User: Which sequence fits this backbone?
């Protein structure tokens, strides 16, 4: 059971001719929001940073807030219900190819913890990614990488509401945000396999 509060931001984007949802979950240290309004303030602040890493085709649709030790959301914020509206990403990638939907750029923070002699990292995945001119090279678009690094720094600088800082589920301190230079594959919604054409 996590010893820290957490926030899930659910995004939607077009994938294979239909809308697909994916999310990032942020555990954090600092004050736990006291009510739904405070959770929305935190969600809006985190997404204000996160949306700079996302193309306009990607929109925030929901957020869930969890108190430490809880499996049930203490706050549910639905941006598709008036007076709220889905919030699009703001990253510009004009002229640069967009990667397939199940490709993702990876942001990670180092922690002081190790497992089997290897450092443990906290990772966040960003779908709707763009690449540097040559899709075959799978390099993350420079402007996207820059935005992700700034987002990674923002999440641990203590300026979020309640002095929230991203950490591990059990409170491991996050530091040194980095962006992996190449896109990776991350499975989206599980789908039935297509039958081969006879």
Assistant:
């Amino acid at each position: 059971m996590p010893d820290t509060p957490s926030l899930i931001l659910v995004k939607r984007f077009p994938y294979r001719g239909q809308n697909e949802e994916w999310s990032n979950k942020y555990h954090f240290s600092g004050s736990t929001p006291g009510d739904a309004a405070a959770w929305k303030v935190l969600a809006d602040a985190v997404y204000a940073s996160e949306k700079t890493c996302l193309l306009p085709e990607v929109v925030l649709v929901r957020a869930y807030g969890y108190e430490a030790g809880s499996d049930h959301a203490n706050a549910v914020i639905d941006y598709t219900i008036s007076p709220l509206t889905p919030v699009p990403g703001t990253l510009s990638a004009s002229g640069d190819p967009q990667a397939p939907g199940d490709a993702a750029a990876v942001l990670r923070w180092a922690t002081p913890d190790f497992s089997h002699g290897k450092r443990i990292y906290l990772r966040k995945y960003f779908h709707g990614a763009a690449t540097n001119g040559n899709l075959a090279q799978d390099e993350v678009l420079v402007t996207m990488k820059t935005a992700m690094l700034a987002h990674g720094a923002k999440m641990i600088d203590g300026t979020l509401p309640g002095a929230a800082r991203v950490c591990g589920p059990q409170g491991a301190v996050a530091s040194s945000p980095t962006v992996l230079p190449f896109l990776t594959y991350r499975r989206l919604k599980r789908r039935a396999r297509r039958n081969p054409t006879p």
Q: What stands out?
A: Residues 192-198 have pLDDT under 50 and may be disordered. The first strand starts at residue 6 and ends at 15. The beta strands are 6-15, 18-29, 59-66, 75-78, 87-88, 103-115, 118-126, 165-166, 175-179, 184-185.
